[in-house]
Every structure is written in C-alpha cells, then in structure tokens.
Amino acid sequence: MQKIIEKVKKLKLLILDVDGVLTDGRLFFDDNGKEYKSFHARDGHGIKLLRQTGVEVAIISGRKSNSVALRMKSLGIEYVYQGHENKIAAFNEIIQSLSIEPEQVAHVGDDLLDLPVMTRVGLAIAVNDANFAVREYADWCTETPGGMGAVREVCDFIMQAQGTFDSVLKSYMQ
Questions:
Q1: Residue-by-residue DSSP string for 37-77
Q2: How far is the CA of 47 from the CAs of 14, 16, 56, 107, in angstroms?
Q3: Under DSSP, is residue 158 helix (H, G, I), strand (E, B) or coil?
Q4: Global confidence as pTM
Q5: Per-residue pLDDT of the chain (174 residues; tens, 9 = 90+)
Q6: For 2-162, CATH number?
Q7: Which of 94, 112, 114, 148 shows the greatest Cβ crowding within 10 Å of its Cβ?
C-alpha cells in the first residue's frame, strides 16, 4: 500500500470513465430513445472537493450523452471527452493541455476500453465490480462498486494521501 500512496502523492489529474464508474453501468432508455443516467451525489461532492485541493478531474467516455455533459458542467469539469472509443488521443490532449506527465495521472475504469489509458498512467484504479481483466491491470481496486460512491472513495483516498483531507474536513466543522 505504501507504493500506491507514493504514486498518489504525485497526482495532479484524475481521469474518470463514465458508464460503470460514475454510473452503475446500466443504460436506461424511454420509448422515444431518450437516455437516462443515474449519478451518485457523493461522487459529485468528492470531485468538487478534490478539485478544490488542486487536483484536476477529466472525463473520457466511449459513449456520448447529454446527461453526462450537463452533470460535468454542474461539477465544473472542463475536460470532458465523450464518444471517444479510442481514449488515447483524448488522454494525450489532456496531459499536453495541462503540461503534466503520465505519472501524474490516475485513471478509474471498469471495462476493456479503459485499459489503453490505464496502462499509461501513474496510478490505474478499477472499481470494485470492474471486469476481471481490468482489475488485474489495476494498481488499486475500490471497495465500492461503480456508480455507488466509488469515485468518492478515490477522491477521499487521494486527499488523504496528499495530506489535504484534514483541511477540507475542517472547512465543514466551523
């Protein structure tokens, strides 16, 4: 675990997949083809807290959804890449834009589309219910399943390892 904590201390960017990470992976469509997604409020709050500590958050998703665009806008996430089945181009664009190295990035994924980025970052994270192959490539797996607070678990872990969680907690204790 100490090796993972050392990797976390270097992080400046957290990249998240959407379906299966920020959601539970289920896709809901009404009779007119309108898509619905369910996001966990704790994940969103964790993202906001993490960004306040100076760690940027980005989204790279293979699917495209208006609900994702709306949710990420409400969280203030600037780097939102949807409809990118080849996630490497988006990954490269983000790290160039932020002038950071791959070792300063963590990626949270759940399925095979996430592996190309996960194998290039400093810290590869799989949600608890990720595909078995993704869990094998991950440096760390969450205890919580995707869409059920796994992202908050990651955000809290990063803040704890970087020594910023106490100051965030203090701001709520006034």
A1: ----HHHHHHHHHHHHTT-EEEEE-SS--HHHHHHHHHHT-
A2: 9, 10, 9, 14
A3: helix
A4: 0.95
A5: 899 999 999 999 999 999 999 999 998 899 998 888 999 999 999 999 999 999 999 999 999 999 999 999 999 999 999 998 889 999 999 999 999 999 999 999 999 999 999 999 999 999 999 999 999 999 999 999 999 999 999 999 999 999 999 999 998 887
A6: 3.40.50.1000
A7: 114
